[in-house]
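Feature request, filed as a ticket because there's no other form

It would be nice if the structure record came with a short human-readable summary line next to the C-alpha coordinates. Right now we just get the raw output. Example of a typical job, pasted below so the devs can see what we mean:
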Amino acid sequence: MNSSIPVSLSATRIAFASFIGTAIEFYDFYIYGLAVAMVIGPVFFPSSDPAAQALNAFLTFGIAFLARPLGALLFGHFGDRIGRKATLVASLLVMGISTTLIGVLPSYEMVGWAAPLLLCLLRFGQGIGLGGEWGGAALLAAEYAPAGKRGWFGMFPQLGPPVGFFFAVGSFLLLSNLLDDAQFRAWGWRIPFLASSVLVVLGLYVRLKLAETPVFAKAQAAHQQASLPFAQLLSHHAAQLVLGALSIVVCYALFYITTVFALSYGVTTLHIPRPQFLSMLCVAVVFMAVATPLFAWAGDRYGRRPVLLAAGSAALLSGFLLAPMLGSGSMWQITAFLSIELFLMGATFAPLGALLPELFPTSVRYTGAGAAYNLGGILGASLAPYLAQQLVLHGGLAWVGGYVSAAAAISVVAVLLMHETKGRELA
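Raw output as currently delivered:
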Protein backbone atom coordinates (compact mmCIF):
# COMPACT_ATOMS: atom_id res chain seq x y z
CA MET A 1 0.00 0.00 0.00
CA ASN A 2 1.25 3.46 -0.86
CA SER A 3 2.41 5.05 2.40
CA SER A 4 0.87 8.38 1.37
CA ILE A 5 -2.65 6.94 1.59
CA PRO A 6 -4.27 7.91 4.90
CA VAL A 7 -5.03 4.96 7.16
CA SER A 8 -8.75 5.88 7.14
CA LEU A 9 -8.79 5.62 3.37
CA SER A 10 -8.26 1.94 2.67
CA ALA A 11 -7.54 0.69 -0.81
CA THR A 12 -11.00 -0.87 -0.84
CA ARG A 13 -12.71 2.43 -0.06
CA ILE A 14 -10.76 4.29 -2.74
CA ALA A 15 -11.52 1.62 -5.32
CA PHE A 16 -15.20 1.64 -4.40
CA ALA A 17 -15.43 5.44 -4.49
CA SER A 18 -13.87 5.55 -7.98
CA PHE A 19 -16.19 2.76 -9.13
CA ILE A 20 -19.53 3.85 -7.63
CA GLY A 21 -19.71 7.24 -9.34
CA THR A 22 -18.95 5.93 -12.81
CA ALA A 23 -21.42 3.06 -12.29
CA ILE A 24 -24.20 5.50 -11.36
CA GLU A 25 -23.40 8.04 -14.05
CA PHE A 26 -23.10 5.44 -16.78
CA TYR A 27 -26.34 3.86 -15.60
CA ASP A 28 -27.92 7.29 -16.10
CA PHE A 29 -26.31 7.63 -19.51
CA TYR A 30 -27.19 4.15 -20.71
CA ILE A 31 -30.84 4.23 -19.72
CA TYR A 32 -31.20 7.13 -22.11
CA GLY A 33 -29.45 5.19 -24.89
CA LEU A 34 -31.76 2.22 -24.34
CA ALA A 35 -34.81 4.48 -24.17
CA VAL A 36 -33.76 6.03 -27.49
CA ALA A 37 -33.81 2.60 -29.09
CA MET A 38 -37.27 1.80 -27.66
CA VAL A 39 -39.43 4.79 -26.78
CA ILE A 40 -37.91 8.29 -27.05
CA GLY A 41 -38.95 8.80 -30.69
CA PRO A 42 -42.67 8.04 -30.25
CA VAL A 43 -42.94 9.97 -26.96
CA PHE A 44 -41.05 13.14 -27.88
CA PHE A 45 -41.36 13.54 -31.66
CA PRO A 46 -44.32 13.75 -34.10
CA SER A 47 -45.68 10.38 -35.18
CA SER A 48 -46.06 11.09 -38.93
CA ASP A 49 -42.87 9.24 -39.94
CA PRO A 50 -41.43 6.41 -37.78
CA ALA A 51 -38.06 6.58 -39.59
CA ALA A 52 -37.80 10.32 -38.87
CA GLN A 53 -38.72 9.61 -35.25
CA ALA A 54 -35.84 7.15 -34.93
CA LEU A 55 -33.34 9.51 -36.55
CA ASN A 56 -34.43 12.45 -34.36
CA ALA A 57 -34.18 10.29 -31.26
CA PHE A 58 -30.66 9.18 -32.22
CA LEU A 59 -29.68 12.83 -32.75
CA THR A 60 -30.77 13.69 -29.18
CA PHE A 61 -28.55 10.79 -28.13
CA GLY A 62 -25.59 12.54 -29.77
CA ILE A 63 -26.17 15.89 -28.04
CA ALA A 64 -24.72 14.62 -24.77
CA PHE A 65 -21.49 13.61 -26.51
CA LEU A 66 -21.08 17.15 -27.79
CA ALA A 67 -21.60 18.42 -24.23
CA ARG A 68 -19.17 15.98 -22.64
CA PRO A 69 -15.94 17.78 -23.68
CA LEU A 70 -17.42 21.02 -22.31
CA GLY A 71 -18.11 19.22 -19.04
CA ALA A 72 -14.59 17.83 -19.05
CA LEU A 73 -13.14 21.34 -19.47
CA LEU A 74 -15.46 22.89 -16.88
CA PHE A 75 -14.97 20.27 -14.19
CA GLY A 76 -11.37 19.72 -15.23
CA HIS A 77 -10.60 23.40 -14.61
CA PHE A 78 -11.88 23.22 -11.05
CA GLY A 79 -10.51 19.73 -10.50
CA ASP A 80 -7.02 20.95 -11.37
CA ARG A 81 -7.48 24.23 -9.49
CA ILE A 82 -9.30 23.34 -6.25
CA GLY A 83 -9.19 19.55 -6.04
CA ARG A 84 -10.60 16.23 -7.21
CA LYS A 85 -13.09 15.55 -4.38
CA ALA A 86 -15.37 18.62 -4.62
CA THR A 87 -15.42 18.42 -8.40
CA LEU A 88 -16.47 14.76 -8.39
CA VAL A 89 -19.35 15.55 -6.03
CA ALA A 90 -20.55 18.37 -8.31
CA SER A 91 -20.41 16.23 -11.48
CA LEU A 92 -22.50 13.52 -9.83
CA LEU A 93 -25.14 16.08 -8.81
CA VAL A 94 -25.41 17.58 -12.30
CA MET A 95 -25.81 14.15 -13.90
CA GLY A 96 -28.31 12.90 -11.32
CA ILE A 97 -30.56 15.96 -11.46
CA SER A 98 -30.63 15.95 -15.28
CA THR A 99 -31.49 12.25 -15.42
CA THR A 100 -34.23 12.45 -12.80
CA LEU A 101 -35.88 15.39 -14.58
CA ILE A 102 -35.99 13.44 -17.86
CA GLY A 103 -38.20 10.99 -15.97
CA VAL A 104 -40.86 13.67 -15.37
CA LEU A 105 -40.81 15.42 -18.77
CA PRO A 106 -44.17 15.84 -20.52
CA SER A 107 -44.59 14.17 -23.92
CA TYR A 108 -44.94 15.80 -27.33
CA GLU A 109 -48.66 15.13 -27.27
CA MET A 110 -48.96 17.14 -24.05
CA VAL A 111 -46.83 20.24 -24.74
CA GLY A 112 -45.76 20.06 -28.38
CA TRP A 113 -42.22 21.06 -29.37
CA ALA A 114 -41.43 22.20 -25.82
CA ALA A 115 -41.04 18.50 -24.96
CA PRO A 116 -38.12 17.69 -27.32
CA LEU A 117 -36.50 21.07 -26.54
CA LEU A 118 -36.53 20.33 -22.80
CA LEU A 119 -35.31 16.81 -23.55
CA CYS A 120 -32.34 18.20 -25.48
CA LEU A 121 -31.54 20.59 -22.63
CA LEU A 122 -31.52 17.81 -20.04
CA ARG A 123 -29.59 15.51 -22.35
CA PHE A 124 -27.02 18.30 -22.62
CA GLY A 125 -26.91 18.40 -18.81
CA GLN A 126 -26.27 14.66 -18.73
CA GLY A 127 -23.31 15.19 -21.04
CA ILE A 128 -21.90 18.01 -18.90
CA GLY A 129 -22.09 15.84 -15.77
CA LEU A 130 -20.59 12.74 -17.33
CA GLY A 131 -17.90 14.87 -18.96
CA GLY A 132 -16.58 15.73 -15.52
CA GLU A 133 -17.07 12.31 -13.98
CA TRP A 134 -14.74 9.89 -15.68
CA GLY A 135 -11.59 12.03 -15.55
CA GLY A 136 -12.00 12.65 -11.83
CA ALA A 137 -12.77 9.02 -11.04
CA ALA A 138 -9.76 7.83 -13.05
CA LEU A 139 -7.52 10.32 -11.25
CA LEU A 140 -8.89 9.28 -7.87
CA ALA A 141 -7.86 5.69 -8.61
CA ALA A 142 -4.55 6.47 -10.35
CA GLU A 143 -3.29 9.08 -7.87
CA TYR A 144 -3.95 6.78 -4.91
CA ALA A 145 -2.67 3.59 -6.57
CA PRO A 146 0.22 1.68 -4.96
CA ALA A 147 3.39 1.32 -7.00
CA GLY A 148 3.07 -1.13 -9.87
CA LYS A 149 -0.72 -1.41 -9.56
CA ARG A 150 -1.92 1.72 -11.31
CA GLY A 151 -3.50 -0.27 -14.11
CA TRP A 152 -5.33 -2.47 -11.61
CA PHE A 153 -6.62 0.51 -9.62
CA GLY A 154 -7.46 2.32 -12.86
CA MET A 155 -9.68 -0.65 -13.68
CA PHE A 156 -12.29 0.28 -11.05
CA PRO A 157 -13.66 3.35 -12.87
CA GLN A 158 -13.70 1.15 -15.99
CA LEU A 159 -15.91 -1.37 -14.21
CA GLY A 160 -18.54 1.33 -13.75
CA PRO A 161 -19.76 1.23 -17.37
CA PRO A 162 -20.48 -2.54 -17.57
CA VAL A 163 -22.11 -2.56 -14.14
CA GLY A 164 -24.11 0.57 -14.94
CA PHE A 165 -25.14 -0.94 -18.26
CA PHE A 166 -26.12 -4.22 -16.62
CA PHE A 167 -28.46 -2.43 -14.21
CA ALA A 168 -29.79 -0.21 -17.00
CA VAL A 169 -30.60 -3.20 -19.20
CA GLY A 170 -31.89 -5.13 -16.21
CA SER A 171 -34.31 -2.38 -15.23
CA PHE A 172 -35.76 -2.12 -18.73
CA LEU A 173 -35.90 -5.91 -19.04
CA LEU A 174 -37.84 -6.15 -15.77
CA LEU A 175 -40.28 -3.47 -16.92
CA SER A 176 -40.69 -5.13 -20.31
CA ASN A 177 -41.71 -8.34 -18.58
CA LEU A 178 -44.05 -6.68 -16.08
CA LEU A 179 -45.77 -4.15 -18.38
CA ASP A 180 -47.40 -4.32 -21.77
CA ASP A 181 -46.25 -1.99 -24.57
CA ALA A 182 -48.91 0.60 -23.88
CA GLN A 183 -48.03 0.83 -20.18
CA PHE A 184 -44.32 0.90 -20.93
CA ARG A 185 -44.69 3.79 -23.39
CA ALA A 186 -47.16 5.68 -21.22
CA TRP A 187 -45.15 5.69 -17.96
CA GLY A 188 -43.03 2.58 -17.39
CA TRP A 189 -39.95 3.87 -19.22
CA ARG A 190 -39.75 6.76 -16.71
CA ILE A 191 -39.07 4.53 -13.68
CA PRO A 192 -35.33 3.90 -14.36
CA PHE A 193 -34.80 7.66 -14.73
CA LEU A 194 -36.54 8.42 -11.44
CA ALA A 195 -34.59 5.65 -9.69
CA SER A 196 -31.40 7.57 -10.47
CA SER A 197 -32.14 9.98 -7.61
CA VAL A 198 -31.76 7.17 -5.07
CA LEU A 199 -28.47 6.01 -6.59
CA VAL A 200 -27.07 9.56 -6.60
CA VAL A 201 -27.69 9.90 -2.86
CA LEU A 202 -25.64 6.71 -2.34
CA GLY A 203 -22.82 8.01 -4.52
CA LEU A 204 -22.73 11.36 -2.75
CA TYR A 205 -22.54 9.66 0.64
CA VAL A 206 -19.49 7.64 -0.45
CA ARG A 207 -17.67 10.55 -2.08
CA LEU A 208 -18.23 13.05 0.71
CA LYS A 209 -16.27 10.69 2.99
CA LEU A 210 -13.13 10.98 0.85
CA ALA A 211 -10.02 13.07 1.40
CA GLU A 212 -8.09 14.78 -1.41
CA THR A 213 -5.65 12.60 -3.36
CA PRO A 214 -2.08 12.74 -2.02
CA VAL A 215 -0.66 13.68 -5.45
CA PHE A 216 -2.92 16.72 -5.76
CA ALA A 217 -2.53 17.65 -2.09
CA LYS A 218 1.25 17.73 -2.59
CA ALA A 219 0.93 19.94 -5.70
CA GLN A 220 -1.50 22.23 -3.87
CA ALA A 221 0.84 22.61 -0.90
CA ALA A 222 3.62 23.59 -3.31
CA HIS A 223 1.27 26.00 -5.17
CA GLN A 224 1.83 24.16 -8.43
CA GLN A 225 -1.71 24.42 -9.82
CA ALA A 226 -2.09 25.94 -13.28
CA SER A 227 -4.05 29.20 -13.36
CA LEU A 228 -5.64 28.18 -16.69
CA PRO A 229 -5.29 24.39 -17.04
CA PHE A 230 -6.87 24.23 -20.50
CA ALA A 231 -4.53 26.89 -21.90
CA GLN A 232 -1.53 25.04 -20.46
CA LEU A 233 -2.88 21.77 -21.85
CA LEU A 234 -3.10 23.16 -25.38
CA SER A 235 0.25 24.93 -25.16
CA HIS A 236 2.32 22.03 -23.87
CA HIS A 237 0.36 18.79 -24.19
CA ALA A 238 -1.73 19.05 -27.36
CA ALA A 239 -0.19 15.95 -28.94
CA GLN A 240 -1.00 13.83 -25.89
CA LEU A 241 -4.55 15.19 -25.93
CA VAL A 242 -5.10 14.26 -29.58
CA LEU A 243 -3.54 10.80 -29.30
CA GLY A 244 -5.42 10.10 -26.07
CA ALA A 245 -8.72 11.05 -27.71
CA LEU A 246 -8.06 8.90 -30.77
CA SER A 247 -7.01 5.92 -28.66
CA ILE A 248 -10.49 5.63 -27.16
CA VAL A 249 -12.51 5.95 -30.38
CA VAL A 250 -12.70 2.16 -30.80
CA CYS A 251 -14.20 1.68 -27.32
CA TYR A 252 -17.10 3.99 -28.00
CA ALA A 253 -17.78 2.64 -31.48
CA LEU A 254 -17.81 -0.95 -30.23
CA PHE A 255 -20.11 -0.20 -27.35
CA TYR A 256 -22.74 1.97 -28.96
CA ILE A 257 -22.96 0.03 -32.21
CA THR A 258 -23.31 -3.18 -30.19
CA THR A 259 -25.93 -1.82 -27.81
CA VAL A 260 -27.95 1.16 -29.05
CA PHE A 261 -27.83 0.40 -32.78
CA ALA A 262 -28.02 -3.39 -32.46
CA LEU A 263 -30.97 -3.15 -30.06
CA SER A 264 -32.86 -0.87 -32.43
CA TYR A 265 -32.02 -3.04 -35.46
CA GLY A 266 -32.83 -6.28 -33.69
CA VAL A 267 -36.24 -5.12 -32.45
CA THR A 268 -37.44 -3.11 -35.47
CA THR A 269 -35.85 -4.93 -38.42
CA LEU A 270 -35.31 -8.49 -37.19
CA HIS A 271 -38.50 -8.36 -35.09
CA ILE A 272 -36.85 -9.92 -32.06
CA PRO A 273 -39.01 -9.26 -28.97
CA ARG A 274 -37.55 -6.46 -26.87
CA PRO A 275 -37.30 -8.53 -23.64
CA GLN A 276 -35.43 -11.25 -25.52
CA PHE A 277 -32.90 -8.84 -27.03
CA LEU A 278 -32.37 -7.14 -23.67
CA SER A 279 -31.69 -10.57 -22.15
CA MET A 280 -29.09 -11.18 -24.85
CA LEU A 281 -27.42 -7.88 -23.99
CA CYS A 282 -27.38 -8.84 -20.30
CA VAL A 283 -25.44 -11.97 -21.23
CA ALA A 284 -23.05 -10.04 -23.46
CA VAL A 285 -22.20 -7.31 -20.95
CA VAL A 286 -20.90 -9.98 -18.56
CA PHE A 287 -18.10 -10.56 -21.08
CA MET A 288 -17.21 -6.87 -20.92
CA ALA A 289 -17.07 -7.06 -17.12
CA VAL A 290 -14.81 -10.13 -17.33
CA ALA A 291 -12.46 -8.53 -19.86
CA THR A 292 -11.98 -5.36 -17.78
CA PRO A 293 -9.93 -6.76 -14.86
CA LEU A 294 -8.15 -9.24 -17.13
CA PHE A 295 -6.80 -6.59 -19.49
CA ALA A 296 -6.15 -4.09 -16.68
CA TRP A 297 -3.90 -6.73 -15.10
CA ALA A 298 -2.25 -7.34 -18.47
CA GLY A 299 -1.58 -3.60 -18.78
CA ASP A 300 0.35 -3.66 -15.50
CA ARG A 301 2.15 -6.84 -16.52
CA TYR A 302 3.05 -6.13 -20.15
CA GLY A 303 2.47 -2.39 -20.60
CA ARG A 304 -0.43 -0.30 -21.89
CA ARG A 305 0.67 -0.16 -25.56
CA PRO A 306 0.99 -3.89 -26.37
CA VAL A 307 -2.34 -4.68 -24.72
CA LEU A 308 -4.16 -1.87 -26.54
CA LEU A 309 -2.54 -2.77 -29.87
CA ALA A 310 -3.58 -6.42 -29.58
CA ALA A 311 -7.12 -5.62 -28.48
CA GLY A 312 -7.55 -2.89 -31.10
CA SER A 313 -6.36 -5.19 -33.89
CA ALA A 314 -8.87 -7.84 -32.78
CA ALA A 315 -11.61 -5.19 -32.78
CA LEU A 316 -10.67 -4.22 -36.34
CA LEU A 317 -11.17 -7.81 -37.48
CA SER A 318 -14.44 -8.11 -35.55
CA GLY A 319 -16.08 -5.55 -37.83
CA PHE A 320 -16.21 -8.25 -40.51
CA LEU A 321 -18.40 -10.37 -38.23
CA LEU A 322 -21.17 -7.80 -37.88
CA ALA A 323 -23.11 -8.41 -41.10
CA PRO A 324 -23.10 -12.23 -41.11
CA MET A 325 -23.73 -12.65 -37.36
CA LEU A 326 -26.09 -9.77 -36.53
CA GLY A 327 -27.94 -10.19 -39.82
CA SER A 328 -28.33 -13.94 -39.39
CA GLY A 329 -31.48 -13.69 -37.27
CA SER A 330 -30.12 -16.56 -35.13
CA MET A 331 -30.37 -15.88 -31.40
CA TRP A 332 -27.17 -17.82 -30.76
CA GLN A 333 -25.15 -16.04 -33.44
CA ILE A 334 -26.40 -12.61 -32.40
CA THR A 335 -25.67 -13.27 -28.72
CA ALA A 336 -22.21 -14.55 -29.63
CA PHE A 337 -21.55 -11.43 -31.71
CA LEU A 338 -22.73 -9.08 -28.94
CA SER A 339 -20.53 -10.95 -26.46
CA ILE A 340 -17.45 -10.78 -28.70
CA GLU A 341 -17.86 -7.06 -29.28
CA LEU A 342 -18.44 -6.19 -25.62
CA PHE A 343 -15.51 -8.39 -24.57
CA LEU A 344 -13.33 -6.41 -26.98
CA MET A 345 -14.82 -3.18 -25.67
CA GLY A 346 -13.67 -4.15 -22.16
CA ALA A 347 -10.26 -5.16 -23.51
CA THR A 348 -9.67 -1.83 -25.27
CA PHE A 349 -11.21 0.19 -22.43
CA ALA A 350 -9.52 -1.29 -19.34
CA PRO A 351 -5.92 -0.05 -19.86
CA LEU A 352 -7.11 3.51 -20.54
CA GLY A 353 -7.99 4.04 -16.87
CA ALA A 354 -4.27 4.19 -16.22
CA LEU A 355 -2.96 5.37 -19.59
CA LEU A 356 -4.94 8.61 -19.95
CA PRO A 357 -3.97 9.99 -16.50
CA GLU A 358 -0.37 8.95 -17.18
CA LEU A 359 -0.25 11.10 -20.32
CA PHE A 360 -0.51 14.38 -18.36
CA PRO A 361 1.22 16.12 -15.43
CA THR A 362 -0.64 16.84 -12.18
CA SER A 363 -1.35 20.49 -13.02
CA VAL A 364 -3.50 19.58 -16.06
CA ARG A 365 -4.26 15.91 -15.45
CA TYR A 366 -7.98 16.26 -14.67
CA THR A 367 -8.51 18.54 -17.68
CA GLY A 368 -6.34 16.47 -20.01
CA ALA A 369 -7.60 12.99 -19.14
CA GLY A 370 -11.23 14.12 -19.12
CA ALA A 371 -10.95 16.07 -22.37
CA ALA A 372 -9.21 13.20 -24.17
CA TYR A 373 -11.80 10.72 -22.94
CA ASN A 374 -14.75 12.83 -24.02
CA LEU A 375 -13.33 14.07 -27.32
CA GLY A 376 -12.93 10.41 -28.17
CA GLY A 377 -16.63 10.06 -27.40
CA ILE A 378 -17.55 12.65 -30.02
CA LEU A 379 -15.52 10.82 -32.65
CA GLY A 380 -16.50 7.29 -31.71
CA ALA A 381 -20.05 7.46 -30.38
CA SER A 382 -21.92 10.76 -30.68
CA LEU A 383 -23.27 9.96 -34.13
CA ALA A 384 -22.56 6.21 -34.14
CA PRO A 385 -26.21 5.03 -33.88
CA TYR A 386 -27.34 7.72 -36.33
CA LEU A 387 -24.60 6.94 -38.86
CA ALA A 388 -25.17 3.21 -38.47
CA GLN A 389 -28.86 3.74 -39.20
CA GLN A 390 -27.96 5.70 -42.34
CA LEU A 391 -25.38 3.12 -43.42
CA VAL A 392 -27.94 0.33 -43.10
CA LEU A 393 -30.47 2.28 -45.14
CA HIS A 394 -28.05 3.11 -47.94
CA GLY A 395 -25.49 0.31 -47.94
CA GLY A 396 -26.43 -2.52 -45.60
CA LEU A 397 -25.01 -4.08 -42.44
CA ALA A 398 -21.57 -4.65 -43.98
CA TRP A 399 -21.05 -0.88 -44.00
CA VAL A 400 -21.78 -0.73 -40.27
CA GLY A 401 -19.11 -3.39 -39.76
CA GLY A 402 -16.75 -1.21 -41.79
CA TYR A 403 -17.50 1.67 -39.42
CA VAL A 404 -16.38 -0.49 -36.48
CA SER A 405 -13.20 -1.56 -38.29
CA ALA A 406 -12.36 2.03 -39.27
CA ALA A 407 -12.78 3.21 -35.67
CA ALA A 408 -10.47 0.41 -34.48
CA ALA A 409 -7.85 1.33 -37.10
CA ILE A 410 -7.85 4.96 -35.89
CA SER A 411 -7.20 3.87 -32.30
CA VAL A 412 -4.49 1.39 -33.26
CA VAL A 413 -2.58 4.08 -35.18
CA ALA A 414 -2.91 6.50 -32.24
CA VAL A 415 -1.49 3.95 -29.80
CA LEU A 416 1.36 3.17 -32.20
CA LEU A 417 2.32 6.88 -32.09
CA MET A 418 2.40 6.96 -28.27
CA HIS A 419 5.24 6.20 -25.89
CA GLU A 420 4.71 3.54 -23.24
CA THR A 421 3.42 5.15 -20.01
CA LYS A 422 3.66 2.20 -17.63
CA GLY A 423 5.84 3.13 -14.65
CA ARG A 424 5.68 6.87 -15.32
CA GLU A 425 5.77 8.89 -12.08
CA LEU A 426 2.57 10.87 -11.49
CA ALA A 427 3.79 13.28 -8.80
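Something like this underneath would help us a lot:
Residues 1-8 have pLDDT under 50 and may be disordered.
Residues 11-44 form the longest helix (34 residues).
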